[in-house]
Amino acid sequence: MPVDAAPTYEEEAALLEQGYGIVAGVDEAGRGSLAGPVVAGAAILPVHPSGEWLLGVRDSKRLTPRQRELSLQRMQDAPVLMATGVASPGEIDALGIIEATRTAMARAIDALPIRPQFLLLDAIFLPDVDIPQRSIIKGDAKCLSIAAASIVAKVTRDSLMRDLDVEYPGYGFAQHKGYGTRQHLKGLENIGPCEVHRFTFAPVRRLTGTLL
To answer: Alpha helices, DSSP H only, in 112-211?
Structure first.
């Protein structure tokens, strides 16, 4: 797929032809961050999606913050069903990031107003979720419902990190969203970690001397 290509509805259409009437895309945001939760988004598109809102649905990493927010607003105004699930920093430290991500995804799926009959996932599999599913590498760039879910997850998590910036000033969470930027690492050196940091992640352990 070309770098600038839009995600398509091909996977969903093929599943509908196979008899799956409710297909959900699922993606996460914040897996590589040093602080804050991992947030999953789930999205169920209309059976025959159409309208201008589709033009803004892309892999969230390819959109600006403003574009993501506008896209989410348009999806909310369109017949798109959406939900989010969160796994806390404490759960990430206790479970590991992969299992915590799976936990957040399962919570997002459970929060949907209707239960999906099939799941399309971005590069992960949910063995404990009893729904047929397919993991797609770079699914957020290829598959329309996963791209929609990526926007839901990213916008939700960015908002949570802005709230944490107010609660825990000095780290710059509103700017870097908890990722390991120079600003963030400097804040860790000067202030030390706070309770929303992921203590099992190497940069936090290394800078704080945390032993787990």
So the answer is: 139-142, 144-167, 173-176, 182-191, 202-208
* Closest to 158 (Cα-Cα) out of 179, 141, 182, 139: 179
Tell me the pLDDT tens digit for each residue of 74-90: 999 888 999 999 999 99
Instruction: Output DSSP code: residue 44.
Output: E
Average pLDDT over residues 48-69: 91
Q: Is the distance from CB of 53 to CB of 123 less than 8 angstroms?
A: no
Q: How far is the C-alpha of 171 from the C-alpha of 190, rounded, in Å? A: 9
Reduced to 3 states (helix: H, G, I; strand: E, B; else coil), residue 135 is strand
Size of the chain, expressed as the number of residues it contains: 212
Q: Which of 204, 193, 148, 191 is nearest to 25 (CA)?
A: 148
How is residue 80 written in tokens?
């798109």
Q: Sign of torsion, CA 52 54 55 57?
A: positive
Q: 41 in helix, strand or coil?
A: strand
Nearest CA among 25, 8, 23 for reference residue 152: 25
3-state secondary structure of 52: helix
